[in-house]
Specification:
The complex is a heterodimer.
Chain A (H helix, E strand, L loop, with lengths): L5 H39 L16 H8 L1 H32 L6 H9 L6 H11 L6 H7 L16 H26 L3 H9 L4 H12 L1 H17 L2 H6 L11 H11 L3 H30 L1
Chain B lengths: L13 H29 L3 H5 L13 H9 L10 H31 L5 H11 L5 H13 L6 H24 L4 H9 L4 H9 L4 H17 L2 H6 L6 H10 L7 H34 L3
Helix pairs in contact in B: 1-13, 3-13, 4-7, 4-10, 5-7, 7-10, 10-13, 12-13
The chains are: A mainly alpha, B mainly alpha.
Chain lengths: ~300, ~290
């Protein structure tokens, strides 16, 4: 069969292979730089690597050491405080603004982009701005004093117990507008007929939202939670710019812990172990969500 | 989002409306305040900040902090200002955005129109790679960049950003192309058009919006990146790292006005993109979160 036209046969076979050839560089890059590197870091977390990678197996020693380090516990507790407040406040503000903006507001076209623009900025810019705004010497505290409210105090950023909340403030400022946009898209997707029917039944505005609208926003809640949770775990830049992990190590998070143990304290094995725990946390949040999203589409 | 605007069935009375506008305005002030502080204080001489009110407009207007931040401020050990780092960022962002977008378009095209056994798994792996905490790849990346001689260089940063940008760019193009009628591609195949001809003649001409979304997303992310720049930038640090060095430097008087000017300079490119093409920016954000 193929005797008569070997060139045609070759061409069709090439055509079959082209898509895979085109995909292969990206596939190779992903397998090496993402999954290969993940495997390598997991491997390092079981070795006694210090300043440079070492290949001497030590079992779970790094993980045991890690969970005995007070610095790691500080980072983990900080992450729990930060993540829960960050997620809750962003969701509350985002939902409130979305519902309010959805009331035929004049000037919505102006307000929406203003709520959202912080999302376009780098966390380093956000951190720099808020670092000086919350600085008691030149920032809000000073302004309030100059305006006559002399007993006003806002020195959280210098206070070991309160500094982590300044991170929450800056992070909420940056992302709550984005959460608003997600909820607003969800609200605009709700069929008005459902709402009108409920109104005819005499439901008040409040119960309309509580009983019908908010339950219908479930997918938006889920997406907001997943996105915010994964941003919280990855938070690094904002800490560096805003507090540098301080005062002392009062605002260290797992991401800053990993960096300093790996690259400045020469404990690469422990750094790798902390990175593995971060990955596992993110995987626990993202995998079910991504799996569901993929299944739904196909 | 603008396309889906519609009225709600909910009706609100006069007093409630005043209350609603009040809250919306308070939040507007909350979001605007840091930008106002940055701009106002970048135009003041330093004594007006240290001895005055941060929330006030300048009494003496000056562009000197901007000049300082751009070309004279001490960054690390050199008094170069942010200019060379701004150029580093541009040299890094342009190729990284172009390459990751082109690869994303081709990948999305293959995964939707030339599907084969196992393509779902490949896409799943790519999708997950979008969300990994980059701490998990920092150590091997540092080792590999050192071995191939790209550590501390712009090409090294381009490589890193392309590699970790492919996931999102593929995701965008895949979702966009999956709603494009496959029958058209089949028909072209029967007419004898090959892989690249179909891509060039049929897919690319309809890809305008998704190219804009992807370019904006990649540009914003790569320009704003700090972790990779700080880890692998070496002598070629990007703008974000330089800004952080400027602000955190512990020597001498803290020149807040220069810091604010520097922060605006670092924010300007992405802010301009947001102002010019906000619609596409929002679409990218949403597509990156709610994959619909």
């Amino acid at each position: 069969m193929a005797h008569s036209a070997p060139s045609v046969d070759f061409r069709t076979r090439l055509q079959e292979w082209i898509p895979k050839l085109v995909l292969s560089p990206s596939l190779a890059a992903m397998l090496i730089f993402v999954y290969g590197f993940i495997a390598f870091t997991i491997y390092l977390s079981f070795t006694d690597s210090k300043m440079l990678p070492s290949y001497d197996w030590v079992g779970f020693e790094n993980f045991a050491k890690l969970w005995n380090l007070s610095a790691w516990w500080v980072a983990v507790v900080n992450l729990m405080i930060f993540a829960s407040l960050y997620i809750i406040i962003c969701t509350v503000i985002g939902l409130t603004l979305a519902i309010l903006l959805d009331q035929k507001i004049r000037g919505e076209g102006v307000l929406r982009p203003i709520y959202l623009y912080p999302m376009a900025l780098s966390f380093i810019v956000t951190g720099t701005a808020w670092k000086w705004i919350m600085d008691p010497g030149i920032g809000i505290e000073n302004s309030m004093h100059l305006w006559g409210w002399t007993s006003f105090q806002f020195n959280w950023i210098k206070d070991r117990d309160m500094a982590i909340y300044t991170v929450v403030i800056a992070a909420v400022w940056q992302t709550s507008g984005f959460v608003m946009a997600m909820f607003l898209a969800g609200l605009r997707g709700i069929d008005n007929e459902i709402l009108k029917a409920a109104q005819i039944d005499g439901a008040s505005n409040f119960s309309l939202y509580r009983r019908i609208v908010i339950p219908l926003l479930r997918p938006a809640f889920l997406s907001a939670f997943v996105i915010l949770a994964h941003l919280a775990v990855k938070s690094y830049d904002l800490i560096i710019a805003l507090t540098g992990g301080g005062p002392g190590r009062a605002t260290e998070l797992p991401a800053t812990f990993m960096y300093s143990y790996t690259f400045t304290r020469n404990s690469m094995g422990i750094g790798a172990a902390s990175a593995v725990i971060m990955l596992m946390t993110i995987a626990a949040i993202m995998t079910p969500y991504l799996y569901a999203e993929l299944k739904e589409k196909s | 989002m603008a396309a889906v605007e519609q009225d709600t069935a909910v009706r609100t009375g006069g007093l409630t409306r005043i209350f609603i506008y009040g809250i919306l305005l308070i939040f507007m002030l909350f979001y605007m305040m840091p930008l106002f502080v940055m701009v106002a204080n970048s135009l003041k001489p330093l004594p007006e900040i240290t001895g005055g009110n941060m929330m006030a407009l300048p009494q003496v207007w000056t562009l000197e902090p901007w000049r300082q931040a751009w070309s004279a401020a001490q960054i690390g050990v050199e008094p170069t200002g942010l200019k060379p780092y701004f150029l580093n960022s541009i040299l890094m962002v342009v190729p990284a955005v172009l390459i990751s977008t082109i690869l994303g378009a081709l990948n999305g095209y293959v995964l939707t129109k030339w599907s084969f056994r196992g393509d779902k798994i490949i896409f799943g792996l790519l999708l997950f790679s979008c969300f990994i905490p980059f701490q998990i790849v920092l150590i091997p990346m540092a080792t590999v960049l050192g071995k191939i001689g790209l550590a501390g260089s712009i090409p090294g940063l381009v490589l890193v950003h392309v590699v970790y940008g492919i996931g999102f760019s593929t995701l965008y193009f895949r979702n966009y192309y999956s709603s494009f009628p496959t029958e058209l591609v089949r028909a072209a195949m029967i007419d004898g058009a090959g892989f690249f001809r179909i891509f060039w003649r049929i897919m690319l001409p309809v890809s305008g919006p998704i190219i804009v979304v992807t370019v904006i997303w990649q540009f914003t992310n790569i320009w704003n990146d700090f972790l990779f720049g700080a880890s692998f930038g070496g002598q070629s640090q990007p703008m974000t790292v330089a800004l952080n060095n400027l602000v955190q430097s512990s020597t001498g008087v803290k020149e807040y006005n220069v810091h604010f000017a520097g922060a605006i300079l670092a924010a300007l490119p992405t802010l301009i993109v947001y102002i010019v093409a906000g619609r596409f920016f929002v679409r990218g954000l949403m597509a990156g979160s709610v994959k619909g």
